[in-house]
Amino acid sequence: MPRLRSPFRRPRLDSAVAAFEARIAPLLAAEPADPAGRRRVAGENDTAVSAALGIRPLPTATADHVVPVSGHPDVRVRVYWPGSAPSPAGSGLPVLVYFYGGGFTIAGIDWVSWDARFRERARDAGIVIVAADYAHAPEARFPTQPEQCWSAFEWAHAHAEELGGSPDRIAVGGASSGGDLAAAVTLMNRDRSAHPIALQVLENPALDLTIGHADRAGINASMPGVIVRRVGRSLVRQYVGSDAAAARDPYASPLLAPTHAGLPPALIITSELDPLRGDGEAYARALSAAGVPVTALRFIGQTHGSLGSTGFVPAADTAHRLVVAELRTLHDRAEQRAPEGTARA
User: Fold this and answer.
1) What was the pLDDT predicted at 54?
2) pLDDT tens for residues 211-223?
3) How many Cβ atoms are within 10 Å of 242's Cβ, its own excluded?
4) Which one of 115, 192, 252, 267 is most buried, counting C-beta atoms within 10 A?
5) In sequence order, what are the residues at sequence separation of 6 or more whose Cβ sits closer than 8 angstroms to the Cβ of residue 119?
6) What pLDDT does residue 169 have?
7) Does 1.20.1250.20 match the CATH number of domain 35-332?
8) 331 is a catalytic site residue
C-alpha cells in the first residue's frame, strides 16, 4: 500500500525569494559591527541594490517638514501625495501615517527602497502618506522614537485638511520595528487624545521586545534558536538599553499592554520564515480577544524582508495589492465631522 505523504512538512523558502536573494547577494558589502558604520554600509547597499534592480522612485509630489517633539529631538516627516502635484486642501483623502522598518538602528525615509515604496503606495491607494524619519538607536533610545512618532501622528492629524487629507480618515502603519512604533502610537493615542484612527496596518511587526513571543518553529534548522534570540536581544539593548524593565513598557512592547480594548481595526501581515510571526499573530489574538476587528494573514515561504521585494517576488506583489485594497476602503468611509459651530476635540 503506498505511503501517504504528510501535508505537514518543514517550511521551505519560496523559490522566487531564493532567486531574488541569490541575485542581490553579490551586490551587498559586509556591514561592520559598529552601529554608525553598519548604518552607513546598509544605506550604501540599499542604493546599490536599487540601482542594479532599476528601482526608481515615482515622480510624485512630496514635501518635508520638521515637527517639534516635547522633551526629545525634532522629527522630520515627508508628505507623499498620490499625484504629480500636492492634493488641494480639503480634498478629504485618507491619510496613512507610516513608520519605516530597520531594527530601530538603520534605514530611513531617504533610502531609495523606502522612498520608492511610499510613492508607489500613495499613488496606488490614492492617499496621502506622512512618513516619519524617527531617530536611530543606540544614539537615541526609547522613549525618543515613540514620542517622535506620536508627535508625527499628532501633526498629521492637525494638518490633515491642509494636506488634502481628512482627520477622520487616518490610518497608522509600520513594518518590523516601525510596526512596533505604529502599535505604540495607537496605544498612546488611546491613552492621550483619542483621535479617530480608522485602521492600523502592521507588516511583520516586532511587538514584544522581551523576545517572549518570537516563533522559531518556522526558521530553517540551520538557524538555531539561540542565534535568533541573541540577534534580537542585541537590537533590543541598542533600543531600550540594559534595563530589562524598559522592554516591558507597553509603548516598547505593545503586545504586553494590560488591555488592548479601544484600539483601531487592524490588518496584520506575517511571514512564515520570520521569528516575528509569533509577535504579529499573538497580537492579532490579543486584539480579537479585546473586541477589536482584526485580519491576520501569514505568507507561506516568505522571510522577514521578502514582502518588500515588489516586482521581483509574486507574494510581495500580492501583499502590496492587499494593503492598497485595504487602504482604498478608507475612501468609502463617511466622515464624522463635528456639528456646525462646535470645535473638534
Assistant:
1) 97
2) 999 876 656 544 4
3) 6
4) 252
5) 57, 58, 60, 62, 80
6) 97
7) no
8) no
pLDDT average, residue stretch 238-246? 92
Grid-cell match 495607537, residue found: 186
Q: Which residues of 81-115 are buried (b: 16+ CB within 10 A; e: fewer)?
A: bbeeebbeeeebbbbbbbbbbbbbbbbbbebbbbb
C-alpha dihedral (12, 15, 16, 20), degrees to nearest 10 = 90
Active-site residue (options: 176, 177, 271, 306):
176
Strands 72-80 and 266-273 come out as unpaired
What are the residue boundaries of the structural domains of the chain, listed by start?
A: 35-332
Catalytic residue selected from 72, 136, 195, 304: 304
pLDDT value, residue 223: 47
pLDDT digits (tens, 9 = 90+) for 13-24: 999 999 999 999
Q: Is residue 222 annotated as a catalytic residue, yes or no?
A: no
Q: Catalytic one among 274, 306, 309, 320?
A: 274
Percent of the chain past pLDDT 70, that is, above it, reads 89
